[in-house]
Amino acid sequence: MRGCERLLSGVRPVTVRERLAELTAVAGPELMPDYYGDGLVTELEERVAGLLGTPAAVHFPTGTMAQQVALRYGAEVTGRRAVALHPLGHQEVHERRAYADLTGLRSVHPTTAPRNPTAAEITALDEPVGTVVFELPLRDAGFVLPAWADLVSAAEAARAVGARVHLDGARLWESAPYLGRDLAEIAGLADSTYVSFYKTLGGLSGAAVAGTEAFAAYARAWRHRHGGQLFQQWPAVLSALDGLDRELPRIPDYVRHARTVAAALAKLPGAIVVPQPPHTNQFRLWLPHPAGRLNEAVLTFAEQERVWFAGGWQHTELPGHAMAEISVLAPALDWSADDVIETGLRLLDRMHC
């Protein structure tokens, strides 16, 4: 992938030396490192709070840690240990249920449908919950988002049953175009919002949660208890600030172009694109071939033609089909629909050799 001249999905990996050069280029000659959360960390927190329109934001080294703290806060201020989560949600699938095993909370699933819960489903919960979580977008359902009106009514329903609203916004940055609202209006629906710096923004690592001053004070205390008050974090924080400057303004272009790429991919023989059109700059592609053969073909194609199509093909429950997640970022912007179709057909030709 690193040796390719063109990439359809993802970004070209860089070496440590190249990454250090990038950070050096954005760091002024007098920039000093942070110490236990001051300096650059404070700057990043203030930047995020401003973008999300909240009184405060708190930096965390990982999103898993940040979300545990947010859900714990909801349990303590409401006195309710149950949390309304989607079974495909990040806390259930990708965080090893840390909210339950480390924080002692338990989950309630308002719906199993491949989307966020509706107002009616939240109202119909048969037990009280401290927090209702909305993952924007719901990654493991195909990076899907609700309509803005549906999200508003669902947030209102959560408050009506006495729960806090938490946005799992690891990819909130790319959700704004589909929802048709700016980041502050989206975060304004919630009592707390989590965002990630290393996904679309391209930071080294790290996350933040945003909300009231009282929530931020609590988050800082529990960040320390979780071992997240690190001595210095300037490489990750500097890369996050760079991502906000460099990548955040380009995300609407990525989202728009993802629709062009998805429509072209859907024309490949046997292809299935979900959702169609994409809600963000990421979506899922199924092709009627075994995952192993697709991964081998992509690698051979990259080695011989220096073109990267899409990797990470996985076996699925759909018989005879494999699935890959497509991420439309800066390298994909110069691909036309014809480029996508022509490259896809040449790749698939290799499956029959």
From TrEMBL:
InterPro entries reported for this sequence: ArAA_b-elim_lyase/Thr_aldolase, PyrdxlP-dep_Trfase, PyrdxlP-dep_Trfase_major, PyrdxlP-dep_Trfase_small
Pfam families cross-referenced by the UniProt entry: Beta_elim_lyase
Ranges of residues in domain Aromatic amino acid beta-eliminating lyase/threonine aldolase: 35-281
Keyword set, alphabetical order: Pyridoxal phosphate
Keyword Transmembrane helix: no
Transmembrane segments: none
Needed cofactors: pyridoxal 5'-phosphate
UniProt KW Metal-binding keyword: no
Similarity section: Belongs to the threonine aldolase family.
Name by which UniProt lists this protein: Threonine aldolase
Upper taxonomic lineage: Bacteria, Bacillati, Actinomycetota, Actinomycetes, Micromonosporales
